[in-house]
Amino acid sequence: MESNTPAPRQWDTRRRDKARRMAAASHLADGPVLDSERIVEALQLLLASGDRVVLEGNNQKQADFLARALVQVDPDRVNHLHMIMPSVSLPEHLDLFERGVASKLDFAYAGAQSLRISQFLQEGQLQVGALHTYIELYARLYVDLTPNVVMVAGYKADRQGNLYTGPSTEDTPALVEAAAFRDGIVIAQVNEIVDDPKDLPRVDIPGAWIDYVVRSDKPFYIEPLFTRDPRLIKPVHILMAMMAIRGVYERHQVQSLNHGIGFNTAAIELLLPTYGERLGLKGKICRNWTLNPHPTLIPAIESGWVDSVHCFGAELGMERYTAARPDVFFIGRDGSMRSNRALCQLAGQYAVDLFIGSTLQMDGLGNSSTVTHGRLTGFGGAPNMGHDPHGRRHPTPAWLDLVQTDDPLARGKKLVVQMVETFQDGSQPTIVESLDAVDVGKASGMPLAPVMIYGDDVTHVLTEEGIAYLYKAQSLEERKAMLAAVAGVTPIGLRHDPAQTARMRAQGLIALPEDIGVRRADATRSLLAAKSIAELVDWSGGLYEPPAKFRSW
Amino acid sequence: MESNTPAPRQWDTRRRDKARRMAAASHLADGPVLDSERIVEALQLLLASGDRVVLEGNNQKQADFLARALVQVDPDRVNHLHMIMPSVSLPEHLDLFERGVASKLDFAYAGAQSLRISQFLQEGQLQVGALHTYIELYARLYVDLTPNVVMVAGYKADRQGNLYTGPSTEDTPALVEAAAFRDGIVIAQVNEIVDDPKDLPRVDIPGAWIDYVVRSDKPFYIEPLFTRDPRLIKPVHILMAMMAIRGVYERHQVQSLNHGIGFNTAAIELLLPTYGERLGLKGKICRNWTLNPHPTLIPAIESGWVDSVHCFGAELGMERYTAARPDVFFIGRDGSMRSNRALCQLAGQYAVDLFIGSTLQMDGLGNSSTVTHGRLTGFGGAPNMGHDPHGRRHPTPAWLDLVQTDDPLARGKKLVVQMVETFQDGSQPTIVESLDAVDVGKASGMPLAPVMIYGDDVTHVLTEEGIAYLYKAQSLEERKAMLAAVAGVTPIGLRHDPAQTARMRAQGLIALPEDIGVRRADATRSLLAAKSIAELVDWSGGLYEPPAKFRSW
Fold first, then answer.
1. To the nearest whole angstrom, how far is the Cα of A114 from the nearest Cα of chain B?
2. Which of A89, A469, B136, B453 has its CA 20 to 30 A from that of B233?
3. Strands A361-363 and A368-369, how do they pair?
4. For residue B191, which of B150, B221, B212 has the smallest C-alpha distance?
5. How confident is residue A1, by pLDDT bands cut at 50, 70 and 90?
């Protein structure tokens, strides 16, 4: 043994620090139950300047009571917080930076706040650590971003801190575990605290992992992010959905899949019981799903297309419907759904045949991003769902169908389909020479341009013009030509040499609608299994209860 | 709305089926507590032929009592089970197939049973679904392999089914959740059932997720898989470890990392407090770890090298040591460690700079496998840890250091280092013309050769001859030449043109030990911070309690 015996070291500094903070706040709590009225005071005692703080901001569920309280702490006492948030969704999330409480942000997704993040970044009011994917952000909580404090939301808790997150479990377990097992402080806001543990429908997170529960002044905010009103589905969406079903799903025998948000994919969901049924595809494709409980999936479920759906999160209004379909959804013994974003992301990454999604911009090589000038959106789960995991994977018929060589070490591919109209509303081309993201990255001094999905991961590009089977490209040049051939009259599309089209069609590198038996004239709204939210409610037998903003009756 | 209203359908067939089975076994249980003496009878009532059954089989922890019971069920009553097992470790796991109870196997890793699996496969006694990675296997439990029954192991449970898995949490939460929330039956064997819930150290899995607990006849078996006796570390391991520290860790400023099992990586761990310290690298490299609590990491921890360690599982004998180092390890409020293989795999995949591991065979392109003729091992977590996740990732200095172009969309790479001696013991070359795995795959009719790590994911190959910086290769030919240059006198190495060596050294494509300041003569065992298990115990202040087979005193 070497003689340089180390100096005595204290090995429980985190534990002591936590105990010190909790002792300071002990007069504000009864067991783990914090006094709601004095939450700001409590946070001032439980947080220290420079802390790494996870604030749940998810895609749907928001720990909004805690966010509003955190904004009110005295920035002279608590400042330079390093916020770690899956989703930056509420104004309060950025008010923290304006008020000088927080200074650094690591996040995965920003919807409504994307303009303001971009502005704060330019003004130097906020420093961005990195734009993560969801599972990457969770992963870092266990490596180099272990949090000091984690603030989450649940429906109910008992007085021992046992937490019921119900259908909206989402990111909560992955966030809580990182602090609960490394002497961080876990605070959960809940809509209700029950006296008797038996009054909890079930325990989603054990009380031993939660330090404090606090009753919020009103139920946590939840965003119905995945509800698409069928009335807004246009014929072009239907055309593209028909092409997806024939030219991708049927062709490759896609069994398991993830759909992103969007009217294109909503159209696919609504065509399965009509167009898909007529093609005799029921039971042959689209059986196992990883996605939120999209209301537009109801007709396919009711028609017997869907074996299973595992969900990232809940969807507002779908609670009773999912609970009544336990063969399909993941439901607890208490009868309510359980979601889990970390596991569903894993499932979408490693267990499915196909991801299909959309984007705001794509370049001629298929690189895409939703970051455009002035909008720093982040990408949430898209980069993970929308990439072909390298390394080893189990084969499925669809995955194997993309093998292009007879090399004994050849691998298949996960199908990564980008489904884009060539132009956005307002006549902005979707397919562009260079992504805005490249400029944004440079201007913001990012070491890495904020690309969402890299072109080399994209196997299919589907536009209203046709499908480019990019996985068949033998060279970068051919790849470009294939994409250009379906890029319409965008700058990239105009570069296309029409003489090549016939050759590429003949070789199966691209397909126009007629090549896959899709008639443009058939693409009408009459094909939709439901044409309105009201019809979705009908399909569900009244179990789907859409939020007010989606009701027209 | 379409007129083809679906026929009435029952939506809770799984729930009814579960209730029926549980009613049939109700006389064998007191609440969730199953009668240990009648476990075989209970399994015969709770399982049905053709069920998908998860049997925990992990890397370390084994639900061995349940495995022994399952082997005893009457194959006329229960047969054709489809077993899903992270790790096939015990003879009983394969006896199931010999006895005709099970017929299909999906798994991720097989250590001691790899020869027998191979034999059973050839004899048609067993059908393999696929060789998965761990997280891929968990993922499929939520998509197309949802289990009917899940059998796991824990230390303690109370009479409400609350489960304490303690330091050996491993795969359990990911396995249980898939059944608990889809009307599967969850059975946990435990070493002890406590009457008062307060006597559980903590709850790792809530009782509402567990249907049955049963006291095992003896404590569950746990394999000390990650203990490497420093006495078996040879000078060549030390040489290679020095090269790794200088030529990879120092060069790329590796902060966060995963080490595989092996004497090479154990040597690295034991050189940090000596060789690493003299190089002034403490605090600059190797701060955040994702790995099991390797005893050989104790000297580095005690010397202050290590900020954090998140663990896949526990390591036998390390319980008291990890509990006494809560600043470093993930420890619950009760004072014992929590591991979590799913989260640690994610962390190792997305949050670390580097994976370094070894293999039994590697071909001239860097493809590798531990499957050789007659041995179907599976690969556990290696293919996930040992690949560069595509899609978006946060940048770190090490990751960015591997960018090779000034393309604005250029990405860095996770460092995937293969550290192999050119020959195995017994003079079998490690670096070969063609992997045995290719033949094995063909002979077994697998759609995919059982490759562990694909060459295109490998950034560095490190042998006793030198380091090939494969990420710098501009072509496949150059890649081959670089690998051949460090392949010694293997068939691949002999193909190497020595005239190229000087050029490749000058260009920094390869490095010999002297190029990175490593003197072969310095590579002696005197550099090891601990030279025996006894010295590891000393470093730990007596907290490490090695299993008997590692004690020589």
1. 19
2. B453
3. antiparallel
4. B221
5. very low
Domain assignment of residue A331, yes or no: no
pLDDT, tens digit, 9 for 90 and up, residues B413-456: 999 999 999 998 778 999 999 999 999 988 888 888 999 999 99
Q: Based on the domain organization, do B265 and B366 belong to the same domain?
A: yes
The DSSP H or E segment spanning A263 is helix A263-271
What proportion of chain B, given as a percentage, has pLDDT over 70? 99
Query: Token digits for B358?
Result: 């070894």
Residue B83, domain CATH: 3.40.1080.10
B125 and B167 fall within a common domain: yes
Q: Which helix (H) or strand (E) holds B158?
A: strand B149-158
Assess if residue A46 is contained within a domain: yes
CA dihedral sign, ordered A259, A264, A266, A270 = negative
Tokens of A476: 């970068």
Our measurement of the distance from residue B147's CA atom to the centroid of its chain's CA atoms, rounded to an integer in Å, reads 22
- Confidence (pLDDT) at A5: 58
For residues B153 and B300, membership in a common domain is answered with: no
Label residue A419 exposed, middle or buried (CB < 10 Å: 0-12, 13-18, 19+): buried
Asked if residue B122 and residue B235 are part of one domain, the reply reads: no
* Token pair recorded at residue B544: 């490490």
- Same domain? For B318 and B179 the reply is no
Residues of the domain holding A412: 358-463+467-511
Least confident span in A365-379, B223-237, B277-291, B529-543? A365-379
Residue that is last in its domain, among B173, B190, B215: B215
Q: Give ipTM to 2 decimals.
A: 0.96
Interface probe, candidates A107, A128, A132, A142, chain B, greatest B C-beta count within 10 A:
A142
Kindly state whether residues B246 and B326 are assigned to the same domain.
yes
Question: In the numeric block, which tokens belong to residue A545?
Answer: 């209860």
Task: Report pLDDT for A112.
Answer: 87
Q: What CA–CA distances, in Å, run from A291 to A258, A288, A386, A522, B44?
A: 6, 10, 13, 28, 36
Residues 6+ apart with CB under 8 A from A521: none
**pLDDT tens-digit readout, A226-260:** 999 999 999 999 999 999 999 999 999 999 999 98
CB contact under 8 A, A327 and B11: yes
For B448, the closest of A387, A390, A395 (CB atoms) is: A395
Residues of B in contact with A2 (CB under 8 A): 273-274, 299, 529
What gap in Å lies between CA A2 and CA B273, rounded to an integer?
9
* Main-chain dihedrals φ then ψ at residue A433, nearest 5 degrees: -65, -45
Phi, psi of B389 (to 5 degrees): -55, 125
Give the residue among B227, B154, B250, B161 at the shortest CA–CA distance from B516: B250
Tokens coding B535:
């010295």
Q: Given an 8 Å threshold on Cβ–Cβ distance, is B142 in contact with A343?
A: yes
Confidence class of residue B1 from pLDDT cuts 50, 70 and 90? Answer: very low
Q: Do B2 and A162 touch (CB under 8 A)?
A: no
- Going by their DSSP bridges, the two strands B510-511 and B467-468 should be labelled as antiparallel
Q: Which amino acid is at B476?
A: L
Cα–Cα distances in angstroms (integers) from residue B438 to residues A198, A305, A502, B122, B435, in the given order: 57, 38, 39, 16, 6
Q: Residue B553 above 60 pLDDT?
A: yes
Name the E strands within A225-307: 256-259, 288-290
Question: B330 with B392, same domain?
Answer: yes
Query: How many domains is chain A partitioned into structurally?
Result: 2
Last residue within a domain, chosen from A215, A246, A270: A215
Residue B223 forms part of a structural domain: no
Is there a contact between A143 and B351 if contact means CB atoms under 8 Å apart? yes
Residue B225 lies in a domain: no
What does the alpha-carbon distance between residue B300 and residue B267 come to, in Å, rounded to a whole number?
11
Regarding whether B296 and B176 lie in a shared domain, the answer is no
Question: By the 8 A CB rule, do A193 and A213 touch?
Answer: yes
Paired tokens of B221: 């078996």
pLDDT in tens, A85-110: 999 999 999 999 999 999 999 999 99
